[in-house]
Amino acid sequence: MNNDKGIVIIGCGAGGGTAAQFARKTDRKTNITIFEKTKYPQYSKCGLPYAISGKIPKITDLIEFSDEWFKKQKINLFLNTKIEKLDYKKKIVYGKKQNQLIKKSFSKLIICTGSKPFIPSIKNLDCEGVFTVRTIDDAEKIQKYSKKSKAATIVGAGFIGLELADNLYKMGLKINVIEALPSILATNLDEDMANIVLEKINPDVKIFNDTIVTKLSCLNTSIRSVFIKNKKTGVKNTIKTDMLIIATGTRPQVSLAEKIGCRIGKTGGIIVNEKSETNIKDVYAVGDCTEYVNFINNKPVLVGLGSITVRQAIAAGINAAGGFYKLPKGILLTFTSNIFDLEISGVGLISNLLQKDTYFYGKYNGNSLPKYYPGGKPITIKVLADKNGRILGAQAVGDKAAQRINTYACAILAGFNVETVKKLETAYAPPVAPTLDAETLACDIASLKLSHRR
Amino acid sequence: MNNDKGIVIIGCGAGGGTAAQFARKTDRKTNITIFEKTKYPQYSKCGLPYAISGKIPKITDLIEFSDEWFKKQKINLFLNTKIEKLDYKKKIVYGKKQNQLIKKSFSKLIICTGSKPFIPSIKNLDCEGVFTVRTIDDAEKIQKYSKKSKAATIVGAGFIGLELADNLYKMGLKINVIEALPSILATNLDEDMANIVLEKINPDVKIFNDTIVTKLSCLNTSIRSVFIKNKKTGVKNTIKTDMLIIATGTRPQVSLAEKIGCRIGKTGGIIVNEKSETNIKDVYAVGDCTEYVNFINNKPVLVGLGSITVRQAIAAGINAAGGFYKLPKGILLTFTSNIFDLEISGVGLISNLLQKDTYFYGKYNGNSLPKYYPGGKPITIKVLADKNGRILGAQAVGDKAAQRINTYACAILAGFNVETVKKLETAYAPPVAPTLDAETLACDIASLKLSHRR
Q: Which of A111, A132, B28, B108 falls between 20 and 30 A from B445, CA-CA?
């Protein structure tokens, strides 16, 4: 392998850090350099809502790999360092740390520039008390501000928004959540499944669906109220609030990749293949700045999940260091969360992404234990399948939802039909699971519908 | 379908009851008759240890389908009814209930005669205070007797034995468990995995491995002590006890099936196919009285798990009633239990069943949550694979072990390799699961070993 000038990685989030780690595992000697514009090495962004509330004791606990760890691994990590110039022809990256210019040649480049929060158009956004939640710095500011606040408004009822709602509510704040779409978690769950979550959200947390924030009003530069408007009815309302947190998704940061000719896909992310390669020789890209194809329908999707970022980074790190690692031909978009003590999980496509009459579903609403055994918890599973019964997606809400969905992830990867999964021999014991687990019963119901169609 | 004389089912355990239920779902009109020798309709045998301790409030709570339920479904259930004669040529079953002879013609017969406890050779077994645990009657006797006892000895450290140990210990009894094999749970777990369980068992519960019970001694007809002998060292010992429970497995009851010519396999069970058919036309068999092939190595195994019984019964019921239902070509032997608050699960083959040098394993010992998130619990997963990496079995001990093993059940059914499962996109969120779940990391370790072999 011609890797004599080593590997340069841009960005030390979960993608960059993991890529470096696996590059080092693959090649004990090659030069590995990471440029990171913030002062923090790899940390968990997904943990931010829990660190704000103190569920995770210190925000800096989120740092998964310290400076020292990178040093021990002989990985050159430059924090507080922006990219000044990227010369692809000469294969040199110039980083700037304060007034110091750092020049690094590379044989392979891994771009892990992540994404930045999407900010909807709202008047007076420059009020004090308005936040996004993307970095440790954001979390520290929110934590500090929330301690002197009584009410918080969150824009966006996706996972981050609702996880924040949950955590800030537990800190004692009055919470309002404003969502432009017709239901919460609309990009992750079907509406009927999202409604189970909605019921579990403490009624003191007010959710406004179909609603946008139009304007903020400030008093002495600090936010005091939020003007909202229902998109369907046109009804306007004003909510008093001490802080506003914007959690309306992110946009990939691709300008650096674009400059050197990396192809950007329809979703706005850098196009990568199953080896995490871009179209440009010796250039890899990983994580939130990329798009990859969906395993089920082959359509491009933005990689917005830490779990996928880490997997892409393993591939990029190993391949850049001269090893060989291929991901499956597409991503499953397996996700989970826990909102107001309810576990939520899903994999594959949801109904909104499917054309009417091209699919059907089975939904099972039951208990995690046999009826006669005390302590069972509700579990609802919905499975979507095409007209031949092939599983397209599954959603679960309730007991051990994530692990139940992992089985579906495996089933989708196998191309399994609902007929196969309904017969899956799941583990049974009275204190653990019923003879027929919810994950098989959802398929049983789907299979019954399938047989009626035929 | 020529089903005019209807279906007769012998035995109303989980097999017979479920077969009747699914036969009725398939054919709303046909005659369905069940003969059951005890006074109880379908109940959960697996729940007996928990009903004894009162964790399940009443032993009769275990009854899953009542007399009334069968009546409503127009299924003729004859309890307390033994089989007097089975005339296969004329297709007539004669049942005897007290002095009443019940004659039923059938078009299809489903044999669900179950199994009976295996009793090892022990002197003075006729002492009072000696029990097996197979029926509600057994459980009632044990419960009553244990309330006046201070110490119990359990023969057999399989699941039933250890579940009993756990439950009787929680009732306040001093417990000794005598196991003839070198480790606990020896037919279900590799020794290293079983040892994790052993560590979790309260030290007040004494386990004697490699040990057999040779003799009991009685005082006034009641058991007072147990003579044990270590098979390896020859060392003898005496244990004071107020009761002895034998949990050394079961033997299939096949005499009725044998009489009409059903083929009995090497394991002693009735041979059935994926439609739950025996070799005799129009005769099905289901559950503990049968053997079926192992999905992984095609070798016959005794069906000793309620989960498999129920699945076979679904097939038998539907097929006998004129429908069509095929099980997968073999069983995975997925199991779970919870012993001393530790969840245990497994699927497929264990090392003892594999020839040396034909397989290798990956074992991961970690945590169920990311390091930075409080409340994570230990989880250990061991995966066995053949020399090409194809997964042969998996065992898990710890957090959500059963659901994690269900994913492996699906992976084995798909014929997946450790390379595939190590890349499986599992659900991640800080309060729920780490970015790389234990179930993928066990395969990662296995895959590393595989690459070193190549």
A: A111
